[in-house]
Write a structure and sequence with these properties.
- The complex is a heterodimer of chains A (116) and B (115).
- Chain A is mostly beta strands and 116 residues long.
- Chain A has no helices and 12 strands.
- In chain A, the strands form 3 sheets. In chain A, strands 2, 5, 6, 10, 11 and 12 form a 6-stranded mixed sheet that branches. In chain A, strands 3-9-8-7 form a 4-stranded antiparallel sheet, with no helix packed on it.
- Chain A is globular and about 45 Å long.
- Chain B has 115 residues and is an all-beta fold.
- In chain B, strand 5 and strand 6 form a beta hairpin.
- Classes of the chains: A mainly beta (116), B mainly beta (115).
- Chains A and B meet through strand 5, strand 6 and strand 10 of A and strand 5 and strand 10 of B.
Chain lengths: 116, 115
Amino acid sequence: AQSVAQPEDQVNVAEGNPLTVKCTYSVSGNPYLFWYVQYPNRGLQFLLKYITGDNLVKGSYGFEAEFNKSQTSFHLKKPSALVSDSALYFCAVRDQGRDSNYQLIWGAGTKLIIKP
Amino acid sequence: GAGVSQSPSNKVTEKGKDVELRCDPISGHTALYWYRQSLGQGLEFLIYFQGNSAPDKSGLPSDRFSAERTGGSVSTLTIQRTQQEDSAVYLCASSLKWASTDTQYFGPGTRLTVL
């Protein structure tokens, strides 16, 4: 079955330190992978996506993510965290191997807290 | 418009009443999606439109839920005889087409509270 796991409900990082938000997935075909961020009382904003090509994808606000096929992971990273990065982060996947590949399968979200 | 808009932003209703939620997608986007997000939870897929047709209604929780899209643009999600368990944030998203590589862009959501 298709699934996305975000193993950490919450990640705490000090401002200026690097951050990682983890995501692993399970699909039958090749994955298309997405990261979104949700600020309080707001909708989801697209950060970045992996479709094909270079495994390191760069996105908005200085975020990047690395696709690792052997580990079925797509962890979100940023070299230096800002307090304003504090938000809820969602990983999502589409399965190329399924007819219903327009559907995004979502992780449960990870709350990122950046402390000054 | 510049982004996906939804109205109302907040809706408080009494159990048993009907509600209508509106989504106005990004101009030119042919695919439209409705999701539900319960407090602190991930997103639950409800329904998806290609143009005005909905090829996948499998996510609708019950027959009290329905949605339509007219003119390939605005969509309304209707919940009849609302129940307390319907309380959630309802999110709408649109994408340029329905290709699996297309990015979905989200509106700010409608927070529904059923008393």
